[in-house]
Automatic annotation (TrEMBL):
<keyword id="KW-0285">Flavoprotein</keyword>
<dbReference type="InterPro" id="IPR014731">
    <property type="entry name" value="ETF_asu_C"/>
</dbReference>
<protein>
    <submittedName>
        <fullName>Electron transfer flavoprotein subunit alpha/FixB family protein</fullName>
    </submittedName>
</protein>
<keyword id="KW-0274">FAD</keyword>
<dbReference type="InterPro" id="IPR029035">
    <property type="entry name" value="DHS-like_NAD/FAD-binding_dom"/>
</dbReference>
<dbReference type="InterPro" id="IPR018206">
    <property type="entry name" value="ETF_asu_C_CS"/>
</dbReference>
<comment type="function">
    <text>The electron transfer flavoprotein serves as a specific electron acceptor for other dehydrogenases. It transfers the electrons to the main respiratory chain via ETF-ubiquinone oxidoreductase (ETF dehydrogenase).</text>
</comment>
<comment type="subunit">
    <text>Heterodimer of an alpha and a beta subunit.</text>
</comment>
<dbReference type="InterPro" id="IPR001308">
    <property type="entry name" value="ETF_a/FixB"/>
</dbReference>
<dbReference type="Pfam" id="PF01012">
    <property type="entry name" value="ETF"/>
</dbReference>
<keyword id="KW-0813">Transport</keyword>
<feature type="domain" description="Electron transfer flavoprotein alpha/beta-subunit N-terminal">
    <location>
        <begin position="4"/>
        <end position="183"/>
    </location>
</feature>
<keyword id="KW-0249">Electron transport</keyword>
<comment type="similarity">
    <text>Belongs to the ETF alpha-subunit/FixB family.</text>
</comment>
<dbReference type="InterPro" id="IPR014729">
    <property type="entry name" value="Rossmann-like_a/b/a_fold"/>
</dbReference>
<dbReference type="Pfam" id="PF00766">
    <property type="entry name" value="ETF_alpha"/>
</dbReference>
<dbReference type="InterPro" id="IPR014730">
    <property type="entry name" value="ETF_a/b_N"/>
</dbReference>
């Protein structure tokens, strides 16, 4: 059976959920072979085997320590040469997309980014993308070389499947570029204790209807009751009520959670572009004619300051 490379996203051996989603999708295309690099790479093997990895190629080296991209590209290139896969799947983070693009260039392949689904096709893997502000769904395939595809987090439900997960050391020769860059300073962002927006299973967003920075506490309280990430519309971000890193939409982040709750968001096309592929969409808006109601699974017409606290209280009592 054909082999499919899955690039593992992990923190010191703890595998992140988007990688398990990639393994689930990879099994539709062939036998998943995971590539894990950096400190703790070998420790990822157990969980990867439980999710269908027939083989885990690992490589630990100091070069990976500073979150630099090129050493990872070197490793993936070595894995492609060793395995000759039908596809390489990478998670659609900012880093993942850079790794995928550089890899595709190196190996002379086409790259498809931000796929929301992947399936086997007669002429190779077919990726589904949501494009033009989510107005269209396209299916594409790479017509040259190995298909390099980045997949948005939360695009697939994780399914466990036991496989051998045989660990093999990957031989990597670092390129000149890998050692040509050094991290000179690092400023950690203050942690909110909430999940990362693009990976969260639940996102609670606030828009202009929230009315001010302090009022975002109402949105945060609902998010915390659900273990959710907080998102914001551009109007809320531009007003300085919430950080730019939380912006959802065409010029913000693209999210695809199981549940997206929009409060005081009108549903402009540019906002939809970043959340339309969410599995279940709920909106709370006091205007029954707001465009967001055209796309919701559940809508509540009401003042968010009445509805959201009641919702939070109800969830907290369960
Ligand atoms: P509004 O459109 O003003 O809607 C506020 C909503 O809140 C209204 O529907 C109102 O009925 C409701 N409301 C008010 N008070 C309450 C209350 N008390 N209770 C309940 N409901 C209430 N926007 C993005 O979000 N993300 C992007 O990435 C983005 N990129 C853009 C890129 C370009 C090139 C351009 C031109 C625009 C972009 N925009 C983006 C802006 C976008 O067009 C909208 O202006 C923006 O999404 C509106 O934000 P909003 O829904 O919060 O505000």
């Amino acid at each position: 059976m054909a082999e499919v490379l899955v690039f593992v996203d992990h923190a010191d051996g703890a595998v992140r959920k988007p990688t398990l989603e990639l393994l689930t999708l990879a099994r539709r295309l062939g036998d998943p072979v995971a590539v894990a690099v950096g400190a703790g790479a070998a420790a990822t093997a157990g969980v990867l085997a439980e999710h269908g990895a027939v083989k885990v190629l690992t490589h630990e080296a100091a070069e990976y320590a500073d979150y630099l991209v090129v050493p990872k590209v070197d490793a993936l290139q070595a894995a492609v040469a060793a395995v000759s896969p039908v596809a390489v799947l990478v998670s659609s983070s900012a880093e993942g997309k850079e790794v995928a693009a550089r890899l595709a260039l190196r190996i002379g392949s086409g790259v498809i980014t931000d796929a929301v689904d992947v399936e086997a096709g007669e002429q190779g893997p077919v990726a589904t993308q949501s494009v033009f502000a989510a107005g269209f769904t396209t299916k594409s395939r790479v017509s040259k070389g190995v298909a390099v595809i980045t997949v948005k987090p939360n695009s697939a439900a994780v399914e466990a499947a036991a496989a051998a997960g045989t660990v093999e050391e990957l031989a990597v020769t670092f390129s000149e570029q890998a050692t040509g860059t050094k991290v000179t300073a690092r400023t950690p962002r203050e942690s909110t204790g909430r999940p990362e927006l693009t990976e969260a299973a639940v996102v609670v967003s606030g828009g202009r209807g929230v009315g001010g920075a302090e009022s975002f506490a109402v949105i945060e309280a609902l998010a915390d009751s659900l273990g959710a990430a907080v998102g914001a519309s551009r109007a809320a971000v531009d007003a300085g009520w919430y950080p730019h890193t939380a912006q959802v939409g065409q010029t913000g982040k693209s999210v695809s959670p199981q549940l997206y709750i929009a409060s005081g968001v009108s549903g402009a096309i540019q906002h939809r572009a970043g959340m339309q592929t969410s599995k279940t969409i709920v909106a709370i808006n006091k205007d029954a004619e707001a465009p967001i109601f055209d796309l919701v699974d559940y809508g509540v017409v009401g003042d968010l300051f009445d509805v959201v606290p009641q919702l939070t209280e109800e969830i907290n009592t369960r």
